[in-house]
Structures are given as C-alpha cells and as structure tokens.
Design a protein that fits this description.
The complex is a heterodimer.
Chain A: H1 2-20, H2 23-51, E1 54-56, E2 61-63, H3 65-94, H4 100-122, H5 126-144, H6 150-183, H7 194-200, H8 206-224, H9 233-239, H10 242-271, H11 273-296, H12 301-322, H13 325-356, H14 367-370, H15 372-385, H16 392-406, H17 410-435, H18 450-468, H19 471-484
Antiparallel strand pairs in A: 1-2
Helix pairs in contact in A: 1-2, 1-4, 2-3, 2-4, 3-4, 3-10, 3-13, 3-18, 3-19, 4-5, 4-10, 5-6, 5-10, 6-8, 6-9, 8-10, 8-11, 9-10, 9-12, 10-11, 10-12, 10-13, 11-12, 11-17, 12-13, 12-16, 12-17, 13-15, 13-16, 13-18, 13-19, 15-17, 15-18, 16-17, 16-18
Chain B: H1 3-26, H2 30-55, H3 58-83, H4 98-123, H5 125-147, H6 151-173, H7 178-206
The chains are: A mainly alpha, B mainly alpha.
C-alpha cells in the first residue's frame, strides 16, 4: 500500500494540473503531491532500514534500501522542478508561445515522468524496470520538444531515436539474462525478479551473462549519457524547458544508472567483479575525456551544464567499477549531491535565460553585480558541482578516489583527476566570464521573486548540509550500498 | 502439430520476418515499406502463435494476439495515416545505394549466423537454430536506421530493430511473462506514435527533409 501510494500520489498531482487550469494552483498541486511522495518515501526508508525490504502489488513492486534511497532523490528533485515549473509557464506566456492547454499538458507530462521514474526504481523485476525506463523516454520526448522551436524539434527527434535504439539493446540484454535464468532452472514467473536473479546467478552461463551485461551497459548507458552513446544529451538537455532539464539531468540519468548497478550485482555473482569493472572503467574514462574536451571550447552555458553531467556520470561509473561497499555508498551520495546541484543550476540557468534572452556564455556578463541573486546561485551551484567543500560532492568524490586506490584502480583515479582538473579550469573560466566584470546597465526584465529563489537556495543548502553532516543518511546509504556491493 | 510440420512452420514464419527486413533495404516507396512492416508484424505474431501452440502455453498465445494486433495492424495503419497523402513519396538519396545495401545485408546475416550460434546452441532445438534470424533482423534494422534519411524510414528501421529483438526473445525464452509482454508492446506502440507526431512536426517546420539536413544544434 505504501509503495503503491508513492507511485500514485504524483499522478494525482497530474490530475490536479488538469483540473486546476490556473497556473499557480496547478504548480502548488504538483509541488504538494511530490512533497507527499517524498514524505511517503521517507516513511518507507525508515521501515526498510528497520525491518528489511517490503513488496507490494502482487510482487511487482519491491523496495529495499537502494530503491527507497532513489525514491528520496527523485522526489526531492521533483519538488524543486515542479516549484520552478510555474515560472517556466510564466516565461512561455510572456514569449507568447504558451497557452493554458499546453501548460496543463506540460504539467501532466512532468508528473507522469516523475511517476515512471519512481516505477523504475520500485520495480521488483527487470521487465517492469525496462517498461518504466522506456516510458520515461516517451514522456520526455514531448517535454524536450515542448517549446516547438526548430532546435527543440531536432533535439527531441535525435533524443527519441538514439534512446529507443539504446533501450532496445537493453531489452536484448534483458532477454539474454532471462534466458540465462531459465537455463539455470529458474521458474518463468519469478525468474526476472532481482532477488531471484541474485540468488541464482551463481549457476548462470558466464559467457551469456558477459554478452548480456555488455548490451545492458550499452543500452541503459545510452540513457545515462555515457560516452560514446552520449550524443543526444547536450542537445536534449539544452533545448528542454529548465525544470525538465533539471529532472532529466538531475535524476533520469541516475535512474538509468541504477539499472546498471542492479545488473552489475547479478553479473558480479556469476563471473566475479572483474568483467563489470573493466566495462565500466572503459565507459567512465571515455565519458570523462569527452566531457573535458568539449567543455574547454563550450560557448553555451546550458550545454556546459549538460557536458558537466557526462563528466559526473563518468565519475559515478568509475565509482561503481570499484564496487566495494565504501565506493557504492559514495556513488549513491554523489547521485544525490549531483542531482541537487545540477537541478538547481539548470533551474537557475532557466531564469538567467529568461532575463538575459540568450544561452550564449558570451552574451552574459557581470551577473553577480547586476543580478546578485541569480549570479550568486549560479556561482555557488558551480562551486558545489565542481566538487569543492563543504558540498557533498567533495566528500563523495574523495571517498570514490580512495576506493579506486583500495581496489587497485589507482591509475584510473589519476586519469579521472586529470580530466577533472581540466574541467575545473575550463568551467571556472566560463563562469568568471559570466559572473564577474563591471556592471553595465541592467535590462528591464525583473529578477525572479523570492518564492522562486527560496527552493533553489534550499537545494544548495541541503547539498552543503549532507556534505558536512552525513547523519540522517548514513544508515540508509550503508544499507543501500550493501544491496549491490560486491 | 507433428514435430516436422512444427519446425518447418516455425522456420517459415521466422524466415518471413527476416525476408521482410531485407525487403525494406531495397524498397524506396514509403507505401510498400509500410506494407512490409505489416507483413513482418504478422510473421512475428505467427512465430509466437506456432511456439505457443507447440508448447500449449496460453500466455504465449495471448502475447501472439497482442503482437498481431499491435505490430501487424495498428502500427502499419498509423504509419500509413501519418504519411497521409505523402505515401507515394520516395527515399530520394539513401546514403548507400540499393545493390550495396543488399550486399551489406548479406554480410550482416553472416555476422548474425556467427554470433547467434552460441546463444542458439544454449537454447537447443529448432527454435535455437533460428536465433540468428532474429539477430540478422536486428542488424538490418540498424542498417536501415543509419542508411536511410527520411523520418518514416527511420521509424521503420527502429521497428525492425524491435521486431528482431522480439523474434530473438520468442525463440530464446518463449516470451516474457504476459504482463511484461503487454507493457513492452504498449511502450513500443506509444514510442511509434510519438515518433510519428514528431515526424509530422518536422515536416511542418522544416518541409520535406532528410534527417541529416537538421543542423540547428552543434558545438
């Protein structure tokens, strides 16, 4: 019942949007339902940590510590995104591209998007997981194309074609895992459940599982945005409305990565941790290299944020490659920290675009002097994202690097640090250009009201707080890491 | 169904899936390609039907009906409607010409035979021997996706990839549990609908374009 309501409550928010029509009330409804979902997620987390995993809906849904952790991440960022969603509608209205019908379609799709991500992490079996991830592709295609400009149309076409191919490969991988499970004598009704896969993985055919895992990394990795399957990501994330970019970059990428983490736990039992480690180190280092090389010459700040996501997905993949409990806990903390920082940055960049009228880095100057609130948020967000203390990304990156050395992947950690240094210099250069400088005349566009900046400040404050005190999360993180660590 | 007629019927149906994939490689008119998509969907449904009858598996028979309805009927109808009065239009300048494409398909079938054999022996029996056909369909679908530049052809390429995987899945595992099969079909149907909506919008915004003429976004 608890798990079902976590899924259904965001959909109620979608219904409220249809019924509400007025923009303010719809946004409030969506924020409230996402908040309720977060509260339910916290209740589920407490229960799971105390009493162990729970399941619902005739065994189709199951929550262990890892699932509830992801539920908390998704709903937290959904609150931020739906809160700022009301601003997006107002900007659209001013640009004369919005209408009440389009606004309510947008609101419904965002809530459906949140619900399908929640289904993905609460799914008890790999088939339902696949269906949910594919559903996110379908829903977000419309959201990426929401503005109906030429750029957004092109981005959504690329997005859906590339991700459909990716997700088809993931399906083939799932089929092969199922075949391995049936071959090892699994019963067809439950052979696809995570628990049964992990329990029987020792008897699976090793070469079949290697092939399956490679396909799964290729397939779900496309949705994670890991190089070399990342080409859709900068386009889609830069063209979508800001709250959608925040959700896609902040959580959708890591929801897809969650699938890889789960399958990694299965294949680690079958063939030992070596194979998954090799595959993940390769894609991780490739992603870091791609992100570093394209961030140096970046001229668009939304694309800059998008490439920054590719970097962080690379780091997360590298952390998962290490695979020990410490590393997985750091990966999960990084998922939360990156989600918070990145969604705040995308939401802030939406506001910057609305007042400055451009996404070119060259087009924005002296933001700190002219618009202290926006400039400050953007600057502090970047500080968080670049992994400086006190934010949680600093802690998680440090722990991940330590874990790499502990398992003999020190060389990969060194390579990653080189890429991170390049990225640091490039991003600081772009940020200096945008934020500093003598103030010229400010535009006549009003700065965002306090109710719009408050959640963004809150997001960064949480990101800083969990970097300093791990307290409410440490037990959950530890329990979640135990689920998939090798 | 006796053993030999079962295996020849299964081979025939799986072969039809592969032949229709090869057919899309040489066809240029959108209307005939849509007909081929329908044939492939029906052949895929037949594979599931034959397997289901052979194993007397009600879940698989139900899945076969879903495939026949969704892939054999609904998707081709929607594709036909989406291309509207435009069904006479042709792929004007494919990246790879037809003879070269056919040679490429032959090569892809060889690749599928080599790679599919391992998985096939694990499955065993007639169905296992046919696994390479599913993989070949998948690879040819990729080829269509890369080599053709009209939006409709790209949708068809994606469908071929999906059908190839579905064929492999039916042959390897006799299908997923029915509920999941239903979800998968529903997702694919929705995916095709979304792609068609976007191909319409592309046509409205850019005119009758090739995909690689889209050059708005770059670094």
């Amino acid at each position: 019942m608890l798990l079902l309501s976590i899924l259904i409550v965001p959909l109620l928010g979608g219904l409220a949007v249809i019924a509400g029509r007025g923009r303010r009330s719809t946004a409030v409804g969506a924020v409230a339902t996402n908040g309720a979902s977060l509260a339910l997620g916290v209740v589920a987390a407490v229960q799971v940590v105390r009493h162990g995993p729970m399941s619902a809906a005739a065994g189709l849904l199951r929550a262990d510590a890892l699932s509830v952790f992801m539920v908390i991440v998704i709903t937290t960022i959904a609150i931020l995104a739906s809160w700022l969603g009301i601003r997006t509608m107002a900007h659209d209205e001013r640009a004369h591209s919005g209408s009440p019908a389009r606004s309510s379609l947008y609101g419904v799709l965002v809530q459906a998007f949140v619900a399908s991500m929640l289904l993905a992490v609460l799914a008890a079996n790999v088939g339902v997981l696949w269906v949910a991830v594919e559903a996110t592709t379908i829903v977000t295609a419309f959201l990426v194309g929401h503005r109906r400009t030429r750029g957004s149309l092109e981005a959504s076409w690329k997005y859906i074609v590339i991700c459909s191919v990716g997700i088809a490969l993931a399906f083939l991988g799932t089929v092969l895992v199922y075949l391995a499970a049936l071959h090892a004598g699994g019963h067809s009704a439950h052979a696809l459940d995570w628990t049964s896969l992990v329990a029987h993985a020792r008897r699976f055919d090793p070469s079949l599982m290697r092939l399956a895992f490679a396909l799964l990394v290729l397939g779900y990795g496309t949705k994670v945005g890991l190089a070399p399957m990342h080409s859709w990501l900068p386009d889609a994330h830069s063209q979508a409305p800001a709250p959608v970019s925040a959700l896609m970059s902040g959580v959708l990428l890591t929801v897809a990565f969650y699938a890889i983490l789960r399958f990694k736990a299965v294949i680690d039992v079958t063939v030992g941790p070596g194979f998954a480690r090799t595959v993940l180190v390769i894609v991780a280092l490739l992603s870091l290299a791609v992100a570093a090389s394209l961030l140096i010459t970046q001229r668009d700040y939304k694309r800059m944020l998008a490439y920054h996501s590719i970097e962080h997905m690379g780091l997360i993949a590298l952390g998962a490659a290490a695979g020990i409990r410490l590393a997985i806990a750091a990966v999960l903390l990084h998922i939360l920290g990156h989600g918070l920082a990145k969604s705040v940055l995308f939401l802030t960049s939406g506001e910057i675009m609305a007042v400055e009228g451009t996404t070119e880095i060259d087009g924005v100057r002296a933001l700190l002097a002219r618009r202290p609130a926006l400039g400050g948020l953007f600057g502090v967000g970047l500080v968080a994202l670049l992994g400086l203390p006190p934010f949680s990304l600093f802690t998680s990156e440090l722990v991940m690097i330590r874990a790499e050395f502990a398992v003999g992947l020190g060389w990969a950690a060194v390579a990653a640090m080189v890429a991170m240094a390049v990225i640091f210099i490039a991003v600081v250069g772009h940020a200096r250009h945008m934020l500093l400088g003598p103030p010229e005349v400010a535009g006549d566009e009003p700065s965002p009201p306090r109710w719009a900046t408050a959640p963004l400040i809150g997001g960064l404050a949480i990101c800083g707080a969990i970097g300093v005190f791990a307290w409410p999360l440490s037990r959950l993180l530890d329990a979640a890491a135990r689920v998939v660590a090798s | 169904m006796s053993g030999s007629s079962y295996s020849s019927a299964l081979t025939l149906a799986a072969g039809a899936v592969l032949v229709s994939a090869v057919a899309t490689v040489w066809l240029a008119s959108i209307r005939s390609v849509i007909q081929v998509v329908a044939v492939q969907g029906i052949a895929l449904g037949a594979v599931a039907m034959i397997l289901g009858a052979h194993r007397s598996d009600p879940g698989l028979l139900a899945a076969a009906v879903v495939v026949l309805v969704v892939k054999g009927t609904v998707i081709p109808l929607l594709l036909g409607r989406a291309s509207g009065g435009n069904t006479g239009s042709r792929e004007s300048r494919p990246l790879v010409n037809v003879p070269a494409s056919l040679v490429a398909s032959a090569a892809l079938i060889m690749v599928a035979l080599v790679t599919g054999r391992g998985v096939g022996t694990l499955v065993g029996s007639t169905a296992g021997a046919l696994v390479p056909m599913g993989l070949a369909t998948l690879l040819i679908g990729f080829f269509v996706l890369v080599a053709r530049r009209r939006p409709t052809f790209q949708i068809v390429g994606l469908l071929m990839v999906d059908n190839g995987i579905a064929l492999t899945a039916f042959l390897c595992t006799a299908g997923f549990p029915f509920l999941i099969e239903l979800g998968v079909s529903f997702d694919i149907l929705l995916g095709v609908v979304v792609l068609m909506v976007f191909s319409q919008r592309l046509r409205i915004e850019f005119g009758d374009v090739d995909i690689d003429e889209l050059q708005e976004l770059h670094d």
